[in-house]
Amino acid sequence: MAGLGREWERECYDEERTRGYVGFERRYKNRWRRSIGFRVGNVDVDSIDFDAPREIKDVKGDTFLAGVRFGIGRDLTDDRFNPTKGYSFNAGYEQVSGDHTFGILSGTYRRYGTLYEDLAERKTILATKLLAATVLGDAPPFERFYGGGTGTYGIRGFDYRGVSTRGLQTNVASPKKKEPIGSDWIFLANAEVTVPLVSEEFAALFFIDSGAIDSGNYRASVGTGIQILIPQWFGPVPMRIGVAVPFLKDDADDTEAFFFSVGRL
C-alpha cells in the first residue's frame, strides 16, 4: 500500500500527480509469483506553454484515472539484489479507466552469467535485459512511454524522457515537432559486463544500451563506469556512476553523457 503526491516541471507544462496504490502478491515454492494491484489517482496539467503540442493542450486540467493490474513472474537468480547467475522475467497487463480508457501490456526478461572467476573468487558478470511494453487504446501523454536515463525505460547516454515521439508546435508560423508527447510502445535491449577491480566491492562497468519507440530510428549507446557495492542489512546494493555516448540517435533526441544509478541492470 502506498500513496504519492508529486509535482514536475515538464518540457512545456507543469504536472501534479496524486495517487494511491494497493497491491497483493503470492509467491510459490517453485519461485513463481502472481500479483494484483489497484491504483486510483488524479493528474493535473497546467502552466502550458503557448506553443505546446495539441496533445498536451487536450489534457489541460484534472484527469482522473483508476487501474487494475495483473502480473506474473519468476525469479531463478542466485541473489535478488546482486545476482551472478540465473534469469528472471515478469509480465503484466493493466486496464485503466476513468477520463481515459486504455490498457498497458508489458514484459521484462533478465539473464545473468559468470564469464570468469579469478583465484580470489571475484566474478566477472554478464547481464542482459529485454523489455517491451505497449499501450492498447488511446492513452494521454503522461501515461505513454519515454525512453532515456537510468530508470525503468533507461537508455544511458540519453536524457530522462529524451527519447520520445515529438508533438507539433501550435500558435507559431512555422511549427516544428519539438516537445515530447510519449510513445505508444517501447522496446529496450541492454547488455553490460562488470569486472571486479581491487575487490568485489569495486568493479569496472562496460555496457551497450539500445531501444526503439514508435517513431524515429533505432537508438543505441556505449559507455563505461564504476560500480560500488553498498552494504545494507539485506545485502549489498550496487551503486553506479559513469559516462555514455550515443552512436545511434535521432536529431530531436536529448542526450546526457553522465549517469548515476542504484541497482543492477
Automatic annotation (TrEMBL):
Keywords: Membrane. The keyword Membrane applies. The keyword Membrane applies. Gene3D superfamilies: membrane protein fhac: a member of the omp85/tpsb transporter family (2.40.160.50). InterPro entries: Bac_surfAg_D15. Residues 13-263 form the Bacterial surface antigen (D15) domain. GO terms for cellular component: outer membrane. It is found in: Membrane. This is Bacterial surface antigen (D15) domain-containing protein. It comes from marine sediment metagenome.
